[in-house]
Amino acid sequence: MQRILLFFVLCLLCFVESYGAESHKTNLNKVKKELEVRKKEKKKLERKEKSILGNLQGIDRKILSSNKKVKKLKTKETIFKDLIKTLDLRREEIGSRLEEQKNLAGKKLTFVYQYGISNQLPLTNSNRARTIFYLEEVLKEDANQHKELFKLKTNVTTKEEEQEQGLSKLLEVKTKAEKEQRKIFSQQRKKRQILKSVRKEKKKKAILIVELEKSYAKLEKLIAGVKKYPASEFGSANWPVRGKIVGKFGTVVDPKLGTKLRNKGIDIKAPYGTAVVAVNSGEVVHEGAFLGYGEVILLDHQNGFCSLYAHLSETLVVEGDKIRKGEIIGKVGSTGLVDVPLLHFEIRKGGVAVDPLKWLK
């Protein structure tokens, strides 16, 4: 009986061991399949994020182009209105002169009819004929002047009508441009929502860090390529924009990415469209977009120092421009990978990032 029981236990153990091994193998296969699914999801998210980043840069470029277009149309509108106002005043002035001439001619007629000047008229038997002859001679110049003034008034009126027609057409174009601008700003708001959504959805954020590091490296290479000048004192510098410092110089932890990043400048929060000025005199060596930074301006101060202005909504300079200290070079925006309007500002000494607060006064 004991032998039978022992045999039964051994069989049971073999079965359990066989079943356990099979179960373990099944679990391993499940884990393997799960890993494959997660890897595919990660790659899909990475492709989606790259696509969105490209779209965001396209929207930023559209905003810049739209701002410039509307700005030009507003300038033209002002020119049209000023010209129409000038023509209107001119037309009123000519009208007053015509009225004065009409009154003067009436007074002359009254004078001739009341008094006449017989010793200045040819001798005839008809007083009526003498009066008519005198009127023709006296009022001939008035008639010519009246004719010229009326012609001038007609020309001015015609030009005014032409300018008003031109203004009307311009306003139609401006209305369409402003409508398109509102549409682009709506796309920008959606862009921010998409960016937030992607950041929440993406579990693996390493790809974004790699892309940003590539952009940083590209920017470092650009700065390193700036013509070298002997290092000298930078002196006190203007603030590029007045606002709240929301990002200090040095190593910081990104609250959205959860990673440690070295901030090579400071971040100043200010209202969208606030003017950004050059902290010191220099030359524009770059004006354009960088992934992560948005629209960027890089100034070479030609004394061993450079200054960088990023996330701009509008740039008002081009490469090669000579800039004076305090001159407006751009406007605060939210281009690149920021959710709120702010200016990222850096100072480089010999290509090395230094704390801007040391010089800003």
Average of the residue pLDDT scores: 75
What fraction, in percent, of the residue positions are helical? 55-70%
Low-confidence stretches: 15-35, 117-125
How many β-strand stretches?
12
Total tally of structural domains: 2
SSE class: alpha+beta
**Gap between N and C termini, in Å?**
99 Å
Largest pleated sheet: 10 strands, antiparallel
Strand content: 15-25%
Describe this structure in words.
Helices cover 57% and strands 18% of the residues. It has three helices and twelve strands; from the N terminus they run H-H-H-E-E-E-E-E-E-E-E-E-E-E-E. The protein has two domains: 54-201; 229-358, Glucose Permease (Domain IIA). The strands form two sheets. Strands 1, 4, 5, 6, 7, 8, 9, 10, 11 and 12 form a ten-stranded antiparallel β-sheet that branches. Strands 2-3 form a two-stranded antiparallel ribbon. The protein is elongated, with a radius of gyration of 40 Å. It has helices spanning 2-114, 127-201, 206-224, and strands at residues 244-247, 250-253, 260-263, 266-269, 275-277, 282-290, 294-300, 305-315, 322-323, 328-332, 342-349, 352-354. It has 361 residues and is α+β, with helices and mostly antiparallel strands.
